[in-house]
Fold each of these.
Amino acid sequence: MTRAQTGHAVEVRDVWKSFDLVATRQRHLKQSLVDLLAGRREPRPRHAVLRGVDLSVARGETLGVVGRNGSGKSTLLRLLAGIYSPDRGSIETRGRVATLLELGAGFHMDLTGRENVEIEGIVLGLSRAEIHRRAAAVVEFADLGEYIDQPVRTYSTGMYMRLAFSVAVHVDPQILLVDEILSVGDAGFVARCHDRIREFQRQGASVVLVTHDTGAAEAWSDRVLWLDDGRVQSMGDPGEVVDTYLKAVEGG
Amino acid sequence: MAFRDLLWVLTLRDLRARYRGHGLGYFWSILNPLLLLVVYTVVFSTILRVGIDDFVLFLACGLLPWTWFSTALSVATGSVRQGAGFVRRIYFPAQVLPLVAVLSQLVHFLVSLPLVLLLAAVLGRVPGAPLMALVPIVLIQTVFTSGLALFVSSLGVRFRDLEHILSNVLLVLFFLAPIIYAPEMVPTGLRWVLRVNPLAVLIGGYQDVLYRRAWPDWMSLGLALTVSVLVFGAGALLFERERRGFAELL
């Protein structure tokens, strides 16, 4: 317990990750069998996305991650979530992980908002008893009025995202992984989302925030990591890292 | 346990979505087997005349478990891709996806069973105590189908043409089980096929209980159970090995 309290929430050591290039990902079984019988082994070109990343996030710390498109930010986030597994290196996370990635992608269009809340809560790691206890709070936070009992297919994009966000923030994660800070719904809702994330931070949850918005990275983070071409370019004080990053980007 | 909750809630989701809106949900879930039942009965008792008494009941005993089996596998093949919304977003035990396909088709099978019993009653073939044997038979079929579902669903992520291949395989499998013919009609030299095919054994079991009103052959069922457990183990292993790469492929 003492170790858990003083230790890191996230610890990443020398992580490498590459992907099959898109064109070769999906194959046909028939073709594969023919190749196998003919003794052909197709070369599999791979693209290295992360090349030896080390980082750690302390309990209660918020780490901002900035970098150009394709620098490996989103891949890093998915590795932290356990969605991808690394080719080399190790990733350790302690505590329940929630992601704000592709919000609501698992909703079933023909079911009501309320029914989807139950499913989503369990998918995010709650037990049925837990999600039943929290359902009222989720519904209140999403603030969808009577729509909560309508099929999700009748929702606008904003409503849909609100519901998804609302479930994600009510599973009380110890580690929250965010891809792009939110711009869901009206200003009032965005403000409440931000309040909620601040609350997490106060309660000692760790946040990893991937963003293009360097202003947000500075405002939210205790430290910022600049990822460049799959490597950690620098990590440290938000103001300093963002400054050097911006200079590098503007300098071409 | 989280996995069980997930299995339960996703199966319920499938069923709710299916029966939602139209009160005809139950009707739709039995329409296809019902239609096949009528067509086959007309063909095989008035045109081709296979000479099986109460052919419609005999056929129902094989056709309904077959529908469960084949539909579950077809749905399972694309189940992980259908569930990409979960797999790409969060650490997720994707095994539940094919298992949900098997379980929700099991529910459809179970709700169609009263129809068979009704048919049996009308034909004066009310099953007796052997009806209890349906419990182990259904359980063995669940294990067997789940094992194959894990197998096809893990390959289905990588190989897009698997669905087409599977439908052809299923077409052949249909004739390798005694659904539209009785085992006695098969030449002695070929009967071993029915003995080693777990699906044929299971369908024989349904017919023993619901058509012949007898206890099933426990020896054969024991063998089918053994094969089913092995298939399940192999399917689970393959799935576990492939699972790490799913999010990248979707």
Amino acid sequence: MESLDTIAQVLASTIRLTIPLLFACLAGLYSERSGVFDIGLEGKMLVAAFAAGAAAAVGHSPWLGLLAGVGTSVAFALLHGFAVITHRGDQIVSGVAVNIIALGLSAQLGSTWFGLGGQTPQLQPEERFLPLTLPGADAVAGVPVLGQIYSQILSGHSILVYFAFAMVPLTWWVLFRTRFGLRLRAVGENPAAADTAGVSVNGMRYAAVVCCGVLCGFAGTYLSIAQSAGFSRSMTAGKGFIALAALVFAKWQPVPAMWACLLFGFLDAVAIRLQGTALPAVGILPVQLMQAVPYILTVALLAGFIGRATPPKAGGVPYVKER
Amino acid sequence: MSARAAELPWWADALVMPVLNLALAFLVSGGVLLALGEDPIECVQIMFNGAFSSGSGIGYTLFYATNFIFTGLAFAVAFHAGLFNIGVEGQAYIAGLGVALASLYFEFLPAPVIILLAIVFSAAFGAAWAFIPAYLQAKRGSHLVITTIMFNFIATALMAFLLVNFLKPDGDMAPETRTFAEHARMPLLQDVFGWFGLTMAQSPLNLSFVWALICAAAVSLLVWRTRLGYELRTLGASPDAAVYAGMPVTRLTVIALMISGALGGFLALNEVMGSQNRLTLEFSGGYGFVGIAVALMGRSRSIGIILAAILFGALYQGGAELAFDKPNITRDMVVLVQGLVILMAGALEHMLRPTVGRLFAGCSTTATAQEA
Amino acid sequence: MSVSGPAAAIDLKGIDKRFGAVHANKAVSLAIAPGTIHGIVGENGAGKSTLMSILYGFYQADAGEIFINGAPRKIVRPSDAIAAGIGMVHQHFMLVEPFTVLENVVLGAEGGARLIGGLTKARTELQRLGDAYNMSVPLDTPVSELAVGVQQRVEILKALYRGADVLILDEPTGVLTPSEADHLFRVLDQLRHQGKTVIFITHKLREIMAITDNVSVMRRGEIVGTVATKTTTPQALAELMVGRTVRLKVDKAARAPGPVVLDVRELSATDNRGTTRLRDVSFTIREGEIVGIAGVAGNGQSELLEVLAGIRRRASGEILLHGQPLDPAHTDPAKLREARCAHVPEDRHRMGLVMSFSACENTILGYQDDPRFTPHGLLNRTAIAADTSGKMIAFDVRPGNPQLRASLFSGGNQQKLVLAREFERDPTLLIVGQPTRGVDIGAIEFIHKRLIAMRDAGKAVLLVSVELDEIRALADRVLVMFDGRIVGERGPDASEQDLGLLMAGIAS
């Protein structure tokens, strides 16, 4: 039974570690499907995490934290949009700028405002999104396997976790079953066609970038006030880039994006679990190797060793009417 | 449309635009300082004095500038060939291994030979780390930006793994190599001056700076005066024309990125061999990303890159002084300013252009009118 | 021209548009009667597409007014034009390739936040339109899998689905076979009978004469004449187009061809997607003859040029140069240049020139390995500049400044720069694609004379052109390509009808 418990623990931790990736990956999906590449997911998560941590600590409410996190992230998303949509700047350079600004700004404001070396104050339980117990979870906890799955893996997460998973079918529905999604995909594939069909390319791209900002805001908020009890310097630690890798790995599709994030979250959970533990026949698995696996897998995919990833055709290219 | 078509004179493009964009970035930074309750003018004074008013300050400024020259050149060479090498950071990091190899395992050799080996090894390691993404881009069309980002993280993991498991001396806690022997370090310029009986203020400025200037001249020569440079620029300006002209596109792609990786690798000479004297975690510290801004601001020309690198060096050094003087300000402020410069000079470089273009167009029409 | 009776369907007044230094439309006024097909002809760059893009709201005019059915309308974006009942079929189709036909049609006119309602409605409506105009298209196939002619039908249906009363077609026949073009003309005729107004832009006078009621001629951004089609002739229109009498014939002395230079045997090749575009093509070219390849664009000519230039790998077949087979593994552009094969590519913007480079840097493009230009791998700038100056004089390139950027030359001078580079190397085989595309009439005459001079100097010349008149004027033998095959060979005096049937794949 102990091994079953271990598996359940690893899977539960997989889910927790997947959430920021999943939010950020879906965020990138909206943006990149509309033709705006975004390597600034990391930066937006970071400022959102800071804003959420700060606002929750000052306002004593996780909802205030969420609002601040999402608002800040959207502001940064609009900055990216302003640079690359309105002024047709380079999308990669703008993304790099967003990441670096976010890094400097969150740490500097944190130090000045709270004097804790860049951290925000430790949050009280009522200032955080706490784990929810699903109905009947305690009752079935003793039932082997199915009960364990329900009580240990599916139950006991914060509201943001359930919201993240709900976003997957919702995103699919929005992209493939609504006018908004059709237009969003059209401006990402052939903006000139969308333009001549009477769709505002810039308007759609701004809308997509805002969607991206909102979801990055959720990702950052989750990090600082659901998973942890406050913001700490550089707490995203490359998660925005793993989300980017997952997006490529999922070939810009929502449901595969969830599986990619779960895979990368699982690898992370296993790495944490196995830290310093010797495995039979393998010995101690270097934790760094496990950390590198998502990146290596993504490179292998890009190299065409496992399928082919074709990005949206107009991705990375500012829309200029031809002349 | 018509506003964008307005052509600026070359000097406006090379001087006025970067200065204007820079001014904008500083203006926003000043706003942030105000919001933090500091006097921006005073902060600028502290930073300027810190960077330029003493011999030691200048030394530090040029020391940091050395890093930015290498990474700026690295980005620029690839950029000429139309390649966006966002992986300079990782290439420089891996090149640290090459330097450590020369300084630790060849320490029985005389100093000049060790330096030569360190140059060769750092270039080789940097180039090697650029090779795989380069090959994948050239042969399989893998998206270079994404692969190089991935390789940055793979480099981070690999270096941590090597330092923790192999390179750290037994019994030490810190994941770093032992300190290099005296003669296995890059000579400091103050010592070099000392050999000739000259004195110079204390700073980590070392011979890598001279090597950076040599590299800048060599890159300029390569890009504008050689057949290889011509081929790289053709590839960058029009890949189809390069194919039409019978240029070896695959090979050129790989060569451009390997040169880029080698130049980025020289960062390790300055940081690892010239200053820290041991291989440490994360010594590349974001210099690779800032190199993008340096190259963009310097319009990918060597002279421009050197000037932009000195500017960023001054920002680094001045920022350190500012953090020292003002308890309210940390070195993160410099990171923020860097980000803003990248935003204004890089991503928003087109924002002011139409306005400036109209201004120039207005001036020239007035001039013609007066002539008539 | 004043329109009597009902108000003009479209009335443009004083439309003016500049792109930087280019004055694309100079105070253009144009009235189009409802229920007619109105042709607009003019050379490339005469401003036809710009004018229509302004009417469609794709560009905005710097000055001028637009009246629709007599009422002034502000059209600042395509959705305004659509709302005013204007539809446009662009020269390069505006379709989202991975989307199905249905999705493409409803894009921008979805009729609700959820797609399902709009898709259902569109399905019924498209079936009705398809039946009414005899234009059936598969609704659930991704557009990328459809043939070009079918894609064009999707574009027309898209406009009709949006309730267009005025349909603009920009160079619609360039990508069509003659039979597809005929089908299009029948559709347009039907539209006219239903009271729709059609604006038909082309540079082919034959089409103007065949289908339009009225025709306007544009030259250098201005409308130089509007006439009823019945009252004019192709010659009169041609003179209006270029502003002077045109001689479509080139002086060419008879010449007996020499030994075979290029021998192509059963050559096949695929495009980048893996579709076979060249099927068992065989032909020879001799010294001192021009072999012309005629055909509708997209029938394998581009792939043929690329294979012969070493840019594209052949799938099978043999190529013999002066009797020596070329090894497919080692046939690249550099090797072919060494073997004195010169190549003037179809698209000088994409391939033949690097637009941001100076004339100097462009004259060594492809010859960068020549030790005269790059001794020891270093650029010899003096030698390059001297060589460029010489070539610019020889080919009358203006302005004759070797340091000027290629993008700052006119189309004709850019093309002369490419020709000078390729002709002056004294090649034995010359492969030329679309030598006069986007080139003004004066330069066309110059280029034609030079091509004849190369032939008279004993060069073997392969000329690929979609301009049938050009092929007939220059070629000693005409090969017609259709669907990747050579479907027939004719002499230079073959009639247009004869060649047209071959190009349509009907005769052989």
Amino acid sequence: MAYIVKRLLTMIPVLLFLSMMVFSLIHLIPGDPAQIILGQDATPSAVAALRAQMGLNQPLFMQYVQWMGKLLHGNFGTSLIDHEAVMKLIGQRLPVTVELAIGTLIVALLIAFPLGILAAVYRGKWADFVALFTSTIGLAVPPFWIGIIFLLLFTVKVHLFQSSGYVPIWQNPGQNLSTMILPMVATGIREAAVLLRMLRSSLMEVVDQDFVRTARAKGLRGFVVIVGHALPNALIPVVTTAGIQIAGLLGGLVITEQIFSLPGFGQLLVQSVFSRDYTTVQGAAMVAALIVVVVNLIVDLVYGFVDPRIRLTGGRS
Amino acid sequence: MKKAGTSLAVIATLIAMGAVVGCGSGGTNNAAGTAGNAANTTAPSTGSQTGVLNVGLQADPSTLDPALSSALVDRQVMANIYDTLFALTPDGKIVPDLVKTYEVSSDGKTYTFHLQTGVKFQDGTTFDAAAVKFNLQRDMAKTSARASELNMIQSVDTPDSNTVVLHLKAPYSPLLGVLTDRAGMMVSPAAVKKYGDDYANHPVGTGPYIFESRVKGDHITVKANPNYWKGAPKIQQVTFKAFSDPNVELTNLENGAIQLSDQVPAQSLSSLQQNANFVVSNTPGLGYQGVYLNTSEAPFNNQYLREAVDAAIDRQTITNVVFKGEASPAWGPFSPKSPVYDAKQDTPPAPNGDEVKKFLKEAGDPNGFTFTLQTANSPVTAEVAQIMQSMLAKYNITMKIQQLEFGTLLSNNTNHAFQASALGWSGRIDPDQNTYQFWHTDGPQNGSNFSDPTVDKLLDEARQVGDMSKRKAIYSQFMDEMHKQDPYIFIYFQNNTYAYSKNLQGFQAYPDGVFRIADMSI
């Protein structure tokens, strides 16, 4: 518990630093929302007037302080372009991406575990070759290409899935899955390739250790030895990788979201940058940062469960 | 032991394969079941009988408030929610719409509009002269994106509830053309007062479709207005869906998720034209694309270098290679749909190597020169830039390409922070709207920082003359001057290219490129 509190406290300077970075970077990009709202044929005086109306003519430092002040009260402000609460915009988009990221990870695990275990057990044999071949393909073929091919195959040639028309899972689970399965698999293949390699090499290291030999010597079956003894000891790097992956997926699914027309968090962030919607970019980037920090914390906590030798509660080493 | 190992391998492999296949297709079998059901249940509803239309758009409309709109894609939705004071016909004529009849004073400075009676906004409030005045004043406000279109209006009078009188500062012939676009879209004053800054999320007009719901970045749904003053539309519900990738939009058209698409990737045009399930509409638009040359900075403060670039570009090759029939070569701001289009003057001559060399010599740079072109970071604009680069390289003119995100490109253009800037214009029906603001001294879009007394005089004159044939003669002189001075290199006229399902009836192409869904049935 003390560990968690300590970790939560260290999040504060990290997030504060990030807020400054996000704020200054988005304001450094040329162009401004007033110009974009008023369009090509706006006069400079009209742009200046709209800037004033949006509060963009104040010194940057003041704008930052005001934004932080609101943020500390849990108020992300209002979108400069849409005039909607940034929190509401994020609330509409984040569930899409969270579902997609979790689904992607599940697909990745379903592929990576059986193949990774096989590859480690039959190192250098054909099963290993199949696993490595699969993972090389997965790494080499970009998800957007797989996505477009999936769209052509499974929505045009064979009408199995829907190419657009996302609805939240709690409204219509059938239709939700019909729009979500393809993107989950398309991105899952690449994540699986990464996990598979990690699991294979980590398992191989463990399999050579004395306790595995002991287990075998006790007469345990090969499969039991691997799953019951070796695997738990090989999981730490895999959990770390999966944690990094899920954090990365939450902000990095933009292209998948575009191809499968999903109104996700990544698209919100990209569109807001293009329209110089400062408040939305800042809010969304802060939420993304928070997610990464929290996921890291969760991963650290999971270590303790996966490997009881790692005890995070005290200062014991 | 070895045997056991082998059989274990087989079993494990089978499990693994099962898992992989499970994700690839076996697992999708379950999902396919649900998906299949979902597809079966949704297919008829997206299909023909119930009068539901799904429209694909190339971007998510940034706003549904005509006072703030600055993108064509906004109009695809707004044109169905709002009526305009004047309307455009498919052949480009301007006719009264919410205005029933009108008179223009002989000095061209007073416009009297007699309005349609009995028209109601979708919120039940009455459309009348006060509403028109409210709208015009709202659009004339400094922070409106319409301000520059209406800045010739001095004052608006409403002598009675059905009459609006506009007093202009000077004769301004583009006025009616302007009022066919967003400045003429009438929003409900009551809704504006009710929602304030949030109005764009609750748009209310007098048009054939009522705004129903919107998920930002995803879709907008409108439903038929049963009390529409021109008669209820046939299609009961329309969903506009944004696709940021044109190929994805095409895929969605092909699999039936949408029935009308606002773009067709050029490389897919001919195959789609041959597909019997779809109809392709490919007609000239009103816009033009090309390159601003910064006349206030080296190298293009030298007129001869501008002329050299103009003479070196082979527009026909660009349109053939990149657009494959979705654009035509341009040599002026007036597309074939413009009332002042002159085939002779607006069609570029073939590139002329001798002339290029002559201009370079006159400029004092016979061995060529170097400049940087700023262009948007889209595949199409990059391709155009690369072809230009190779055409110019023949004459030792080195063009460096700098790809920028659109907001940055626009900002640099406005601030004259470029040597050459590839930026076009979506175009308007009135020729003034395609010229004045770009090449008149201090025009709001005069990115080239161009200033020439003859051009200024001609542009001022052309917007004051009412008669279109007289205006055409003035614009012809203007084009002579532009071809001499070349502050802008015109490259191509982009077509309005749409594709729709053969079940969709009543589609008509309008020069402004905006769908009129009230005309259609499915």
